[in-house]
Amino acid sequence: MNRSLVIHVFLFFVYLFVQVILLRNISLFNKAFCFLYIAYILSLPIDSNRILLMLIAFVLGFLIDIFYDSLGMHTAALVAVAFFRNTWLQLIAPQGGYDEGPTLAANGVQWFLVYSIPMVGLHHLLLFFIEAGGFSMIGFTLTKAFSSMALTLIVMLLLQYLVIRRRR
Amino acid sequence: MERLLYFFFQYRAFFTFLLLEILAGWMIIQNNQYQSVKYFNTSNQIAANLVSISQGVRDYFWLKKVNEDLAAENTFLRTELERQNRILQGGDSVDQKAIDQFDFVHAKVINNSVSRFKNYITINQGLRSGIEPGMAVISTKGVVGKVKSVSEHYAVLISLLNVDEYISSAVKRTNNFGTIHWNGTDPEYADLLYIPRHVKLAIQDSVVTSGYNAIFPPDILVGIVEEVSLREDAPFFEIKVKLAQDFHRLAYVKVIRSKLKPEVDSLEFATIGEPK
């Protein structure tokens, strides 16, 4: 138990620094961005307390906002993800429940996509519409949100496959 | 009372959610306010150190281009210096205050973005160099933005590429005034608003700052008119301006300290009333 706690605290900082130092500089065609830090909230243990999840999401979102000069936006989107995560996990639980964490290695690629696409989608739509400050540029905002979703999901999948290979 | 507490306890997750979202919403609104001294942004010491490391790596990719720009600026400044010297020798009847109304603080960009709706730039000069919120920022090419918040050694600027930013400007050839505003899509183009339809515009007209707000000196280049269209029933042109400064590779900027701004402001305040 203690060991996994240390790992999760460590991963928190890894995701934070990777996001603000590396991924913050990446933007494809000024439209696609990579917000990999959601993967941290998605990867926390299945039986995590929902309130704790939201508090972690709040702190992580806040720290990321400082670096993006967008105080509150990432926080709002990430807290929403943390709120709906457990409910969504319950709804898509495989027969017999979960044995391990919410990873691709434990539950297969199909489950992982079903799990992550709506969560990433929720986060990105919220984030980009808050950033746009309304629906006045709906087409452009949607383009941004969906292209970023694709990029974030690809990077998340690659990361999951890397973890599988290391375990073998 | 007990039932009320039980109710809150039962839905505690939802209420925590609500509370945190309200907190986040409050932060968004606070941050949207135009000028404010803020600690939780990249002018924060720790955050600024981190982003300047990552900018340091990126700088290498632009070294050649930035060098060319700096060399070009050097030659320009030298000729400008000569000209100024001649003017100064010419006569002493000019108001000294008006001559050095503006002075410049040079700063290096340590953080910049172009692809969001609200883009901000962080520079490595702050309170120590006399920078204050509201000051104008230009580069060798043209207008960059305004200072939003300042810390001891760093400052965050509202980029021209920010949908909240409006800059009073004019078409240089015809002297018609309008407002430059970025619409949030293409970082190379902005719109020039409120140019009435009787004006005869031409492609390639240059758009400069008007100098009406005493923040920007007049005649700083903003961009070049690229496309002009006029709808049947519209009172104003739709003008697309190609920005003079390529924000993708912004490396060095100059912050303008306007010494007469307090005077202009207090005069306007006395005449018109408090600004919104």
List the defining traits of the structure above:
A: 168 residues, mainly alpha, two-stranded antiparallel ribbon, globular, B: 276 residues, Thrombin, subunit H, 5 helices, 29% strand
Return Rg of chain A in Å: 16 Å
Radius of gyration of chain B: 22 Å
The class by helix and strand makeup of chain A works out as mainly alpha
Kindly identify the CATH topology of the largest domain in chain B: Thrombin, subunit H
Total strands of chain B: the figure is 12
Mean pLDDT of chain B: 81
- CATH homologous superfamily label of the largest domain in chain B: Rod shape-determining protein MreC, domain 1
What structural class results from the helix and strand content of chain B? Answer: alpha+beta
Would you write up a description of this structure?
The complex is a heterodimer of chains A (168) and B (276). With 168 residues, chain A is mostly helical. Chain A has one domain: Orthogonal Bundle (Arp2/3 complex 21 kDa subunit ARPC3), CATH 1.10.1760. Chain A has 6 helices and 2 strands; from the N terminus they run H-E-E-H-H-H-H-H. Chain A has a two-stranded antiparallel sheet. In chain A, a hairpin with a 3-residue loop joins strand 1 and strand 2. The longest helix of chain A is centred in the C-terminal third of the chain and has 30 residues. Chain A is globular. The mean pLDDT of chain A is 85. With 276 residues, chain B is an alpha+beta fold. Chain B folds into 2 domains: 128 residues, Rod shape-determining protein MreC, domain 1 (Thrombin, subunit H); 81 residues, Beta Barrel (Thrombin, subunit H), CATH 2.40.10. Chain B contains 5 helices and 12 strands. A 6-stranded antiparallel β-barrel of chain B has the order 1-2-5-4-3-12. In chain B, a hairpin with a 4-residue loop joins strand 4 and strand 5. Chains A and B meet through helix 1, helix 3, helix 4 and helix 5 of A and helix 2, helix 3 and strand 2 of B.
Write a short abstract of this structure.
Chain A is mainly alpha-helical and 168 residues long. In chain A, 74% of the residues lie in helices and 2% in strands. Chain A binds chain B through residues 20-22, 24-25, 27, 30-31, 33, 50-51, 54-55, 57-58, 61-62, 65-73, 75-76, 79-80, 83, 130-133, 137, 140, and chain B through 12-14, 16-17, 20-21, 23-31, 38, 40-42, 44, 47, 50-51, 53-54, 58, 111, 113-118, 120, 122, 156, 163, 183-187.
